[in-house]
Amino acid sequence: MFASPVIAAPMAGGTTTATFALATQRAGALAFAAGGYKSAAALAEHLAPLRSAGTDFGVNLFLPPREPLDPGTADALERYRSELLPEAARLGASVPDLPFSSDDPRVQDYWAEKLDLLLKDPVPLVSFTFGLAPAAIVADLQRVGSRVLASVTSVAEALAAEETGVDALVVQHSNAGGHCASFLPQPRGAGEPSIVELIAAVRAAVGLPLVAAGGIGDAATAKAALTAGAVAVQLGTALLRTDESGARALHKAALADPKYTTTALTRAFTGRPARALVNDFVRSHANAPDAYPEVHLLTGPLRAAAADAGDPEALNLWAGTAWQKSQDGPVGTVIAGFLDEL
């Protein structure tokens, strides 16, 4: 199914650049391009170097929200906008006006045009996150030669994904840095299975190839996930600090800064649960509404201003729970370390 047991995670927002993806590919990993937040034109430009390389690769797309915000969530979003104003003033940033139209291409993450691009000019693999692509779309992509993956976080989600006809599953644990892929309600906290236990449970429930993701910071964890039934592991935070990573220097420095001692799932930056280093912004906005991508659009100017000001306390410092094991240096060296052990 995959050319390598190690997959470089698609990290949207600038971390996964074409340079980064090609470097992971040269090191022996399966490269995944990040399609999130890009227009179709930007995605085509992003994919061009990977297409030219002539080797196996994939692209990840975000599923867009299917329904407008309900009135209660819309009201909570208005309150959150007001809550952000003092922070914006401190940073010299503006907060966009509400509401955002449900047919705003940013709200839909340019979904239709990117799907059209991938149907007209197919890529070897397409993965989806934030929900399940309809079975008809899965079939359309398979018809043009793409293998299709769905991102899931539980047995129930895996069973639902299998019904859509996908070729494989990315099984993401909540230890993963950045956005949680969950789309069905599930308990968190005490009693939650480890990534190894989650892989074993999903392996017992479905017959599809599995990719283990989330909190895989070393080869020992990767080996255990493969032994439990995964055919590959996906690395994200483990590669964030590398030379080729497009993550901000401020973000890379924070991952190595001993002042940051924990991570948490937070909606503060985007309105969707995402794991980040706990900083002032995470602590101050613990009650951010469940409104993605509207919160993402509201906080975008603040995050950009924080980066310009060199202020990590107001920046989205995405990090998985194994962030302290992440290494700097060439990405090829990090990937080689995993491959040698595997």
Description:
The protein is of the alpha/beta class and 342 residues long. It folds into 2 domains: 6-65 and 107-247 and 325-341, Aldolase class I (TIM Barrel), CATH 3.20.20; 68-101 and 261-316, no CATH class. It has 13 helices and 11 strands. The chain has helices at residues 18-26, 40-53, 71-91, 111-120, 135-143, 155-163, 195-205, 219-228, 237-240, 249-255, 280-284, 294-309, 331-341; strands at 6-8, 30-34, 57-62, 125-129, 147-152, 168-172, 178-179, 210-213, 232-235, 263-266, 274-277. It has an 8-stranded parallel barrel with strand order 1-2-3-4-5-6-8-9, surrounded by 7 helices. It has a 3-stranded antiparallel sheet with strand order 7-11-10, with no helix packed on it. Helix 7 (195-205) runs parallel beside helix 8. It starts with 5 loop residues before the first strand and ends with a helix. 48% of the residues are buried. The model has no long low-confidence stretch (mean pLDDT 96).
Protein traits:
three-stranded antiparallel β-sheet, TIM Barrel, 13 helices, eight-stranded parallel beta barrel, 11 strands, alpha/beta, 40% helix, 342 residues
